[in-house]
Amino acid sequence: MKRDFSIDSLRFIGIVGIFLSHASSPPLIMNLRNFDVSLMVFVSAICMTYFSRPTSYTKYLKSRIIRLWFPVVIYVLGYYIISPNSFPFTKKDAPSRLLAALFLYTPTYLWILRVFLLMSLVTPLFTKYISRINDKKIFLS
Fold it and tell me: For 90, how many CA atoms within 13 A lie in the half-sphere containing its CB?
């Protein structure tokens, strides 16, 4: 299989952005690189679609949700059951915070899984569009 310059270029941009975010860059650079993790997730999903068997959008989405969200539910509920006092909320607001964590609406480390799920929604739609672009300048823009 031949390497795809456009995919490699997007990977490079994403990785540089992630490096810059961990290198105490100036505020302007930090604001410009806000898309880096989403871009890397998107590129990973594109690569996955190239190497996976063709399937319907519904089957694809179901498999992504089961693979990404179901383990989060087990983890969040397990963590809450085992150690409710150390979970990132007080007992007073536990029900609403637990629900928020289950649906990945939380500022904690679960944010990346929300990114993965959102990218799972749009990736199959964009891969069809991207496969029709022959001009690399248009693709990168």
Answer: 2
Q: How far is CA 76 from CA 32, 104, 107, 139, in A?
A: 33, 10, 14, 39
- Can you count the helices (H) and strands (E) in the chain? 7, 0
The pLDDT of residue 44: 79
CA distance 49 to 47: 5
According to the per-residue pLDDT averaged within each range, which of 24-28, 89-93, 107-111 is highest?
Answer: 24-28
* pTM assigned to the model: 0.53
- Look up residue 53 and give its two tokens: 């068997």
List the Cα angle 81/85/87 in 5-degree steps. 70
- Measure CA 89 to chain center: 24
